Amino acid sequence: MALTVDVSEDKWGLTEQQRMIRDMVRDYAVSSVEPRAAEIDRNCRFPVETFQEMAEMGLLGLPVEEQYGGAGADYLSYAIAVEELARVCASTALGVAAHTSLVVMPIYLFGNEAQKHKYLPDLCSGKRLGAYGLTEPNAGSDSGGTETTAVKQGDHYVLNGTKIFITNANYAETFIATAVTEKGVGTKGISAFIFEKDTPGFSLGAKDEKLGMRGSDWGTLQFDNARIPAENLLGEEGKGFKYFMQTLDNGRISIGALAVGIAQGALDKALRYARERKQFGKAIAEFQAIQFMLANMAVEIEAARLLVYNAGRLKLAGLPFTKEASMAKLYASEVASRAANAAIQIHGGYGYTKDFPVERYLRDAKLCEIGEGTSEIQRIVIARNILNG
Hints:
The chain is α+β, with helices and mostly antiparallel strands. The protein has helices spanning about 10, 15-45, 50-55, 75-85, 90-110, 115-125, 240-275, 290-315, 320-345, 360-370, 375-389, and strands at about 130-135, 150-155, 155-165, 175-180, 190-195, 200-205, 220-230, 280, 280-285. Helix 4 (about 75-85) crosses helix 7 (about 240-275) and helix 7 packs antiparallel against helix 10.
């Protein structure tokens, strides 16, 4: 079934490649991802088959050069792909975003040539899925409070600590994690490491059941004298925090796009229902109260998409985009929650049941206000930029 709202190329000023990727992913999402969305949410099941299909389509390495196994597309094309997936299944979109933004991109941007050639081809081809470990029990928004330690012993680093809420954890083969290599110097003592699932001393812990994004896997990473080769240090020692702040800037574009996709999907469903549902002898879409809700959704979604695309274009141009990425992520995530809530209201009692997907959209939307920096953190980032700019 075709989606209700069309986003034309003339309106958004996309390049031919960006339009082609958008249309390809949209068609695939509607035909193959949407039919699985309710089931994977209900069963908390990671859709392995979907990721195998997306790997064959080249969607797991979109913004990486072909010489490293990527598709050679630009970062905005990748964000648009995330948006289209989230329009029908936010869980699937989140898995792609975590793999690409948080694992593929740090290696691509900060890794040496040996690391790029060793890890990127398998990650981009989907042979290996990636997961990224930053959050800890005592280091959430305060990621500078990392407690996991890495002590160099000969030609290895020995890591001890725990990472929580890690997307893709139980299905990933390649991981990146931060750890303190020098105590007493704050964030300048944090480094980043690439490692693999079979690393001695590394294990996966229990995972909690989630409110939303239930088809997206997450888990706990545990380091008990885990031995990681010194050559797996990502970039320079002590630069890990800096690398991952830049990584999160990039990731906030994709999470903003994911939130736009959720919001657009909620509007799609609300429009369809409002046209079909009849009360008092006519479609509820004819009532002004419903029209106002739909209008407000459409206005906010358009504004959110423009913020996301603007941040993406600044990145492509090589211009600063930290503030714009935070603005996009902040606004789009909150729009997603409002749009999903309005979609439930338009559906009435049916919207409160699992017979219709809009309740899933609301549960999924909430994570966008928390992951990769809460809304409060985004406001801090924005305020710092405008005060110091």
